[in-house]
């Protein structure tokens, strides 16, 4: 690799929050700390080729999605480069070609911003490392997460695995509003290889962008209580993850998902992002749990899709239930089997 012309390739996974980030301050600073499972199969794979330009001819880039030019992604990437420019002063000397693909169907309603921004950030750090070979691994990963955050807040949790915390919190000495950290405590074996089956209920365009959504927390009547609750839930889920208390884990995770939606339903203007089948699926999961005692629970993003979370030990039983009862409630019967994973990987 020469710093004049070379290319890198990184993959980064999506992540699913357990304690939700909802509400932000300027510069992508979260209003409350959050914690997520890093996923394993839902990934963005991005190849970054770069070429040094002489005499400050300026920064430029070409954008390919699955090998084809994709102009509709350009504004998001442009904004990302504008934000990270101050932290990567060498960018202005390069022309980039960004070639990106997702392992999950695009327009599946699965947000690719977390995995996409994280994969791009990893590549940019590889270039910085080429220019500054003495940087530590710790610096590399922290700064990658920092840069990813500037693209999309939750993307800072996609750099590392398997559980990532983001945002200043008293129980996490190393925590920061600026980047995510790998969960610094020993996680109980009950959560080892935890499963996430994503039920695609509605693949339509998002009704409300997450930027607008976060903005609705400014002046929200319940904002302060919500931010305090997130801190408390983070403490509680930390203990549950350490002690292996799945019951407590379930109670917090489901309450967080419903609270996220409750915040949107009580915003001004308000949004209802669940669909009838979202509720039907939730009710069936609750009934299945009551009947079988299988420790399965749901969580939601800022949309209609349902993430079904469960330990590997009940995988067979839960997948059978999902196939028999829940898949028919998905759009085009689509669902994705995933599990917790290790974060970004270099090719
Ligand atoms: O990263 P953003 O700005 O798209 O926000 C994502 C927010 C949620 O996915 C709803 C919650 C979270 O913590 O990931």
Provide a descriptive summary of the structure in words.
The model has no long low-confidence stretch (mean pLDDT 95). The chain has 347 residues and is an alpha+beta fold. 47% of the residues are buried. It folds into 2 domains: 183 residues, Ribosomal Protein S5, domain 2 (2-Layer Sandwich), CATH 3.30.230; 145 residues, 2-Layer Sandwich (Alpha-Beta Plaits). The strands form 3 sheets. Strands 1, 4, 5, 6, 7, 8, 9 and 14 form an 8-stranded mixed beta sheet that branches. A 4-stranded antiparallel beta sheet has the order 11-12-10-13. It has a two-stranded antiparallel ribbon with strand order 2-3. The two termini are 14 Å apart. Helix 2 packs across helix 3 and helix 5 runs antiparallel to helix 6. The site of (3R)-3-hydroxy-3-methyl-5-(phosphonooxy)pentanoic acid (PMV) has 13 residues, from loops. (3R)-3-hydroxy-3-methyl-5-(phosphonooxy)pentanoic acid (PMV) binds next to loops.
Q: Label the overall shape.
A: globular
Number of strands: 14
Secondary-structure element pattern, one letter each: EEEEEEHEHHEEEHHHHEEHEE
Major beta-sheet overview: 8 strands, mixed
The helix tally amounts to: 8
Look at the structure and give the CATH class of the largest domain. Answer: Alpha Beta
Our Rg estimate from Cα atoms comes to 20 Å
> What's the assembly state of these chains?
single chain
